[in-house]
Structures are given as C-alpha cells and as structure tokens.
Design a protein that fits this description.
Radius of gyration: 26 Å
Distance between the termini: 47 Å
Number of strands: 8
Number of domains: 3
Low-confidence stretches: 252-257, 280-312
Order of helices and strands: EEHEEEHEHHHHHHHEE
Shape: extended
Mean pLDDT: 81
Number of helices: 9
Helix content: 40-55%
Largest sheet: 4 strands, antiparallel
Length: 312
C-alpha cells in the first residue's frame, strides 16, 4: 500500500499525514482480523516512512504479507485490508494506491509420489555427514541458539501430517501437476532466515543433504518411468483433492502493474533488434490463443528472428 500526503514540519498541524494514516489503517485491519478474517496470519513492514521524526513524509510505503492454509481467505482478507485502507485514507484526505505483488496457494502434497520418494530415499540412505560436518553444525548451532541442545534429524521419515506453512510459487503448480518433494535436515538450532542458515548453506557441511535428496529424486524418476501406473494414481489423487475447482494463477494482477514497464522494455528491445537487421513485431493487448513462442501477459511482445543464422 502506498500513501501520498503532504510533506511538512510535523508541527504544521492539520495536513494530510500519510504516515499517521498508514499507521491507523494497519491498526484497524489488525483489530478486525479475529472477527472478520479468522485464521489469517498478518505481517507488515514500512518500506518508506520518512527520514526523521520531525518531518512528515509525503509518501509512505507499507508492505503487507498475509498467510492462510487456503487461498480464498487470504484474498478475502487482502480485499478487506484494501477497503480499510481506503476508508481511513478518505477520512484523512491521503491518496492511497494499492499495489498487489503476488499470491499463491499452499503446497498440495501427493501421497502417491511422496511414497515413491520415500522408497527411493530408503534405498539411498541417510545423508553421509562426516565427523567434521557434524562438528561444524554443532558449533554453528551453539552460536545461533545458545543453551539449546544440538538436534539434527538423522532418520528417514515420511511426513504426511499437518500443514507445511510456507508460501512459494510451487504451491500453485502443485494444484495443477502432482508434486513430490524430498527434504533434508538442518539442525533445529539453526533458524530459517537466520545468518547461520546462510552460513551452513554455503559450507561443505551441508553438501550431504542435497546430494542424498537428488539421488532419491533420480531413483524416483526411474521408478515412475518403469511404472507409469503410479503416475496415473498420482494424477487421480490430485483430481480427487482438487475436485471441481478451476485453478487459476493470481499473477495477472501483478502483470497489470508491470504491463507498462514490459511495454517500454519491449519497444526498447524492438529498436535494438531492428538496428541489428532483425524482423521485429511488437503488439499491445492480451493474447487469447496461447502459443509456446508467445508470453501471455496483458502487454505482449513477439519477436521473429529471420536472420538468426548471422549470429551463429
């Protein structure tokens, strides 16, 4: 959410205060969550909110993150948040602009493929950490989580209970194509998004985990190629889980904000390629008939390379 008001000394009195408006709107939305949007996990940060307390900023940018196990409640809460922001801004005279970045569904697991991966992982075995690897992880855990006992999951386990509470773009894909995923363990004393997580990821002590997972994935692919009936079972499970829902990506709203940028970029690419003697076609507007060579966005540009051989 971006709010635009007046820039002035904080003691100027009754002006359009974008920062105060944003703070009031966030507080109103958070207060409304339990009753109007139960189960929503909300986080936010002010990306731009002035440079010193005595100066009222003319522009405030607030980045909000909403989570829920299902997409529909998230989108309902998002639209509710936008409504609350606009209502508060209307009272204070501040201009507000909503900038939707992206949204995705949660990861929809597939038991059939999960069991295929589990069987492959049991053939490969647990990650082969060396004594030096364990020693490094122990020392890192001690620094990152002082006083917490060292704990590293070293068994092969099939997890099919609860909700994997994260958000990324394979969530949408998992509602269209059956997914399978193999994980490897990090010490519980190394928190995710912590500097220690980055340190371990870049250290040789973490090599054994992804190597084990990649070998299990390769074996699972061979298993599926030999037994195509398992693929059919995975597809059937996905169809049963999804039901009659029509799964559509939430990204077009993001494309609306990016459309003008892509259009300017397309024209610039077109000029460069025409100067290089290449045939270029630039068109504005949505493509109704998808073809692999076209990127289907609200602003589409297509390039036909008639003299590509010159660059070979």
């Amino acid at each position: 959410m971006q709010g635009s008001g007046d820039s002035a000394h904080a003691g100027m009195g009754d002006l359009r205060n974008a920062l105060k408006t944003a703070e009031e709107a966030v507080a109103a939305f958070v207060a409304a969550l339990p009753e109007q949007f139960p189960g929503i996990n909300e986080k936010h940060v002010f990306r731009s909110a002035g440079i010193m307390p005595g100066v009222m900023p003319d522009e405030v940018r607030l980045w909000c993150l909403l989570r829920h196990r299902d997409l529909e409640p998230v989108m309902a809460a998002y639209h509710g948040m936008e409504r609350i922001f606009r209502d508060v801004a209307a009272r204070t005279g501040v201009e507000v602009e909503e900038k939707f970045v992206s949204a995705c569904r949660g990861y929809l697991a597939n038991d059939v493929l999960g069991k295929v991966l589990d069987e492959s992982l049991r053939i490969v075995g647990v990650p082969k950490w060396s004594a030096a690897d364990i020693a490094f992880m122990e020392a890192l855990s001690l620094v990152a989580s002082p006083g917490k006992p060292f704990d590293l999951h070293r068994a092969i386990s099939f997890f099919n209970d609860g909700i994997d509470y994260y958000a990324q773009d394979d969530g949408d894909a998992s509602w269209i194509v059956p997914p399978g995923r193999g994980n490897w363990a990090y010490p519980t004393g190394v928190p995710i998004h912590h500097w220690a997580w980055t340190a371990l990821s870049g250290h040789t002590a973490s090599d054994a985990g992804p190597l084990t997972a990649s070998e299990a994935l390769a074996l699972a692919v061979v298993d599926l190629m030999i037994n195509p009936d398992k693929i059919a079972q995975a597809k059937a499970e996905l169809a049963a889980r999804v039901g009659p829902q029509q799964i559509r990506s939430s990204l077009p709203a993001f494309h609306r904000s990016c459309g003008p940028i892509l259009w300017r970029f397309a024209k610039r690419v077109g000029r460069v390629m025409r100067n290089a003697g290449l045939s270029v076609g630039v068109s504005r507007g949505p493509r109704r008939n998808y073809r692999p060579k076209h990127w289907e966005t609200p602003h589409t540009f297509t390039v036909s390379l008639k003299r590509l051989a010159q660059f070979a």
